[in-house]
Amino acid sequence: MPKKIIVVGAGIGGLTAAALLAKRGYCVKIYDQAIVPGGCASTFKRKGFIFDVGATQVAGLEEGGIHRQIFTELGIPIPDYIPCDPACAVFLPGETKAINIWRDPQKWSIERQQQFPGSEPFWQLLNKLFQISLRFQERNPVLPPRNLWDLTQLVLALRAETMLTVPFSLFTVLDLLRFLGLEKDYRLKTFLDIQLKLFSQTGTEETASLYAATALSLSQSPRGLYHLHGSMQVLSDALLQGIEKYQGEIHMQHRVEQIEADRVSVRNLKTKQLHQEEADYIIANTTVQDLVKLSPELSSSYSKRLENLERPSGAFVIYLGVKNLAIPPDCPPHLQFLYDYQGPIGENNSLFVSVSSPGDGRAPDGQATIIASSFTDVDKWWQSENYDQLKQEYTQCALEHLGKYFNLSAQTIVHQESATPRTFFRYTGRDMGIVGGIGQRLSTFGPLAIANRTAIAGLYLVGDSTHPGEGTAGVSYSALTVVRQIESDC
Ligand SMILES: Cc1cc2nc3c(=O)[nH]c(=O)nc-3n(C[C@H](O)[C@H](O)[C@H](O)COP(=O)(O)OP(=O)(O)OC[C@H]3O[C@@H](n4cnc5c(N)ncnc54)[C@H](O)[C@@H]3O)c2cc1C
Questions:
Q1: What residue's CA is closest to ligand 1, atom 45?
Q2: Could you tell me if the CB of 255 is within 6 A of ligand 1?
Q3: CATH entry 3.90.1680.10 includes domain 4-41+60-70+228-310+436-489
Q4: Which end of the chain has fewer surrounding CB within 10 Å, N or C?
Q5: The pTM is what?
Q6: Contacting residues for 64 by C-beta, under 8 A, at least 6 apart
């Protein structure tokens, strides 16, 4: 009899784990509380527009990339995509000329030398660390290891060159800048701060330099960031195709209310009925905060960890359906704006913006989507006595900021709506609506990250709370690790 596996959650992490396990002969069932799969990488439709809920760009579709590797194993065609070039156009406060993060490494090298004279030693060092880290990641290490098999995988992935990176595991990005005498280059530091915030929830002061090496080097060829044709949903659709192809089952609108060592309690949200179901292995595609709520037995093993974690961020997102008139000519697909050098990044002073391209399937002819997000403190959205007013204020502020670049008016805006941490909580079930995973600080990176194995044998955690689960590519690596761990445990 094939072993039975229940996956709690159909985010990209859960779907990937489920599809790979079904392909490898396990009997797999997914339960998800939402109406559509994909979690933070899903979409919604309004007036002919398709909006990506959270994730808008994807890494790992190139030759050897993690998404491609998984589709190849599943025998599923790779969805259509186009590379983003520039991957991002970054505007610092008061500047009208963008810092363009070009896909071509040579072009990006020239751009950064012009933008940040004297900083080349930093980029060269980062690139060396990235190349070594990438080769290490491609050998599928298990981090952090929790048993002998995990440790063996980690040791097998090590090479002499990996050891060269070990001293850097103690450095933040700011340490690297200090080491190279670049810490006083305020413009460079600010650029790095806002880029890193996108990937690691924190800036140069705290981001682990080894993580930054990957995050800041991913955009260049032969790797890159990509826009999927149609919408982000095609990623989930392709994984679902894999699940169906290998006879896995998925049940949407089913919330798992409790996880025990060998069973889950599941509520059908349409009939309100609760049932218990046994499994040989259970995979939680949830945040670690939600896992502890679902499985109180785990609270002692995570309590210190969770107490010491920095409060994860939430997101405020505005979704606009606009006429093409609103989009300036040659608008890049991704832009990042910082509006003020003062104060923390996020909370009304920065926006990450994704713009659809003609014919990419996200908007009717002659129209486009603009999706802009900023980080926000989740607590304020739950504590506020006047939630609607707060949402209105954030919406107004975002529109004013966006109006400096886009031509926004009642004539050009066809559709407008916003999402707050409360919205993310409602649609993705994530604790308080936190998004984007665990910040990649020295204290939460690599060997100190949250593991895929939990203290309960047979219960695994997959997704952006675990190493290296950041973004859809990261959660796919985390899913692959869990799949290999389950195979080794059988
Ligand atoms: C605004 C924003 C922008 C982003 N931009 C990018 C980007 O451009 N590129 C990128 O790669 N990444 C981006 N990310 C991050 C990326 O979307 C996430 O890291 C990734 O999609 C998380 O996947 P996951 O599998 O960990 O979980 P999730 O997406 O959180 O999925 C979890 C699933 O589990 C379900 N679930 C939860 N609890 C239960 C329960 N008790 N019972 C049943 N089901 C449950 C939920 O409904 C959900 O479907 C962005 C995120 C946000 C919020």
A1: 9
A2: yes
A3: no
A4: N
A5: 0.97
A6: 138
